[in-house]
């Protein structure tokens, strides 16, 4: 057995926000009792989360660079989130690259994709397609987005401009996603959050396993093993291992990457506990495989251009 990974780490999925800007409607205080989303109550993360907060949480994990993924910025203010990120102190590699938000079926989608692609820090787009029959647990306003011709036109334009696409969905949407991935062989897809195994029943997990296996057969999709505690609130290393091992078995280390999803993952685990579990579970893999999971896959897909010998200070110049 290899020893636990001790090299440099890229965190390819986290969020930052300043609630005083009034740009994150999903984090606005509810009028009545706190509503629960599919991963539980969000009350503990209804606070500012900036670069300093992230650095504090991640201080002991040798993070040399991160990828900021769109954080639900209001669609009424397109392009603002990337401009706000550009204004932050990124000297220590936090938010070295961005996955930006563009509603791909919108009338202005292609122009917005082009504007985002003009920013050298933007390497990908996310437009969440996770639809749940319970509106309180749904991230998308409607089902079937991946089959919408207009939405697909927006995706094709992003691909033409060299942008990847972060794919966030629920397991019952994986058949539709498999058709999308097959129809867009030139798009680099990145499946978020282990494929969101939200239904922990035997049937729900079987659907997740089979869907993940089907999706992974396409060469143009990778997976983020991010926030595995979102749907496993009373987790143990063994319960996470069941999910993580299947992700790695399906995609292989060269198409899989560990990621935090902080501060959202902080609802159910602190940063050190989460990455401690990642390191423990990955220790059965070779050093090169662990380096892929913690560093190389994210480095390649999100075009960070780092070498394993670089530090977080070096990463601020990418």
Structure description:
The chain has a single domain (9-315), classed as TIM Barrel. The chain is built from 10 helices and 10 strands. It has helices at residues 51-58, 80-86, 109-117, 149-160, 174-183, 202-216, 237-251, 271-282, 287-301, 312-315, and strands at residues 9-14, 36-37, 40-41, 63-69, 97-101, 122-126, 164-167, 189-191, 221-226, 256-259. The radius of gyration is 18 Å and the shape is globular. The protein starts with 8 loop residues before the first strand and ends with a helix. The model has no long low-confidence stretch (mean pLDDT 94).
* Annotated CATH architecture: Alpha-Beta Barrel
Numbering strands along the chain, what is their spatial order in the largest sheet? 1-4-5-6-7-8-9-10
The percentage helix is 25-40%
- Overall pLDDT: 94
* Helix/strand structural class: alpha/beta
Which radius of gyration do the C-alpha atoms yield?
18 Å
Q: Main beta sheet, described?
A: 8 strands, parallel
Which homologous superfamily in CATH is the superfamily? Metal-dependent hydrolases
Report the CATH C-level class.
Alpha Beta
Uncertain spans, ≥5 residues at pLDDT below 50? none
Q: Number of helical segments?
A: 10
Shape: globular
End-to-end separation = 34 Å
Multimeric organization: single chain
Query: What would the CATH topology be?
Result: TIM Barrel
> What fraction strand?
5-15%
Q: How many structural domains are formed by the residues?
A: 1
Order of helices and strands: EEEHEHEHEHEHEHEHEHHH
Count of distinct strands: 10
């Amino acid at each position: 057995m290899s020893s636990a990974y001790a090299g440099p780490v890229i965190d390819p999925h986290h969020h930052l926000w300043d609630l005083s800007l009034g740009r994150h409607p999903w984090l606005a205080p509810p009028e009545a009792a706190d509503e629960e989303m599919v991963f539980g109550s969000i009350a503990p993360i209804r606070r500012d989360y900036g670069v300093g907060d992230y650095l504090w949480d991640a201080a002991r994990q040798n993070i040399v660079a991160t990828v900021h993924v769109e954080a639900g910025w209001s669609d009424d203010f397109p392009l603002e989130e990337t401009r706000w990120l550009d204004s932050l102190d990124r000297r220590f590699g936090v938010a070295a690259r961005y996955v930006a938000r563009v509603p791909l079926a919108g009338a202005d989608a292609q122009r917005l994709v082009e504007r985002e692609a003009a920013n050298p820090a933007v390497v990908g787009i996310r437009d969440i397609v996770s639809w749940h029959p319970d509106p309180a647990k749904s991230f998308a306003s409607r089902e079937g987005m991946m089959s919408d011709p207009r939405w697909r036109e927006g995706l094709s334009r992003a691909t033409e401009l060299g942008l990847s696409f972060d794919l966030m969905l629920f397991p019952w949407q994986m058949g539709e996603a498999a058709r999308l991935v097959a129809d867009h062989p030139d798009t680099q897809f990145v499946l978020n959050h282990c494929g969101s195994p939200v239904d922990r029943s035997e049937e729900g997990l079987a659907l997740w396993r089979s869907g993940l296996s089907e999706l992974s057969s396409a060469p143009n999709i990778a997976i983020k093993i991010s926030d595995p505690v979102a749907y496993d609130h009373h987790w143990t290393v063994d319960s996470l291992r069941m999910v993580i091992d299947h992700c790695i078995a399906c995609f292989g280390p060269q198409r899989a990457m560990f990621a935090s999803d902080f501060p959202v993952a902080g609802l159910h685990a602190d940063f050190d506990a989460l990455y401690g579990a990642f390191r423990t579970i990955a220790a059965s893999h070779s050093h090169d495989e662990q380096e892929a999971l913690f560093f190389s896959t994210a480095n390649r897909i999100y075009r960070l251009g780092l070498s394993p010998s670089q530090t977080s200070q070096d990463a601020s110049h990418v």
